[in-house]
Design a protein that fits this description.
The protein has 215 residues and is of the alpha+beta class. It is built from 3 helices and 10 strands, in the order αβββββαββββαβ. It folds into 2 domains: 64 residues, Type Iii Antifreeze Protein Isoform Hplc 12; 102 residues.
């Protein structure tokens, strides 16, 4: 009598593993993550303020004087004025800001009255064409000696800001003399007042001339 043969046992399936497959998956995931990071960073905008109109040194500004703009600044976000940086009492402009220009944090302050003083000086010589309201200048002074000659000029006030320039009036002012209102650090106010009292010869030299103004 024929007997049934026993069923053949199936050999267990072996798992195929290729390290290149895993490396490929890791590279794909890393690539997708990098793209998402770049896109999210590029789309991140910050709301900052721009000047609605040209602002001069000494102007008092509030939020109503500014316009909001959403821009991509990247790591330069903290260099420009944002809404939370404007106090209720407003700010003081410390350098000229053009119409439509984003307002740099360095161009405004709420303690200007404590740090700067406004002083009018008379300059006998002509000013460079680059010097005007908002310009930054070094104030040079030369003291008259007993012989009537003037000594070697020295920098009296570095980096003063020009508020306005006007022709001097009156008989005392010489021909072509100019009155220039300057914002100077209070720590140097006494030195400038002393130079004015001694009738020192003053000259204003612009700092960081624009390329168009260089020879």
């Amino acid at each position: 009598m024929a007997t049934k043969s026993a069923p053949r046992e199936r050999s267990p399936r072996t798992f195929w593993f290729d390290p290149r497959f895993v490396i490929g998956i890791v590279l794909v995931v890393a690539s997708v993550g990098g793209v998402l990071l770049v896109v999210s960073t590029a789309d991140k905008t910050t709301t900052v303020y721009a000047a609605r109109a040209a602002l001069s040194v000494g102007d008092h500004i509030e939020r109503a004087d500014l316009a909001e703009h959403s821009v991509r600044l990247g790591t330069a976000t903290d260099r420009y004025l944002t809404a939370d940086a404007v106090p209720a009492e407003g700010l003081i402009v410390t350098r000229t800001i053009a119409e439509g220009e984003l307002v740099p944090m360095a161009a405004v302050g709420n303690t200007t009255g404590q740090r700067l003083a406004s002083i009018v000086v008379t300059v006998g010589s002509k000013l460079p064409t680059a010097v005007g309201a908002g310009s930054v200048v070094d104030v040079w002074a030369s003291r008259e000696a007993d012989s009537g000659a003037y000594g070697l000029p020295t920098v009296l006030i570095p980096s003063a800001t020009v508020v306005r320039v006007e022709e001097s009036d009156g008989l005392i002012a010489g021909a072509g003399a100019l009155s220039v209102e300057l914002l100077v650090p209070r720590s140097r106010t006494a030195r400038l007042l002393e130079a004015l009292a001694n009738a020192d010869a003053l000259s204003l030299v612009p700092v960081n001339l624009p390329l168009s103004g260089r020879s």
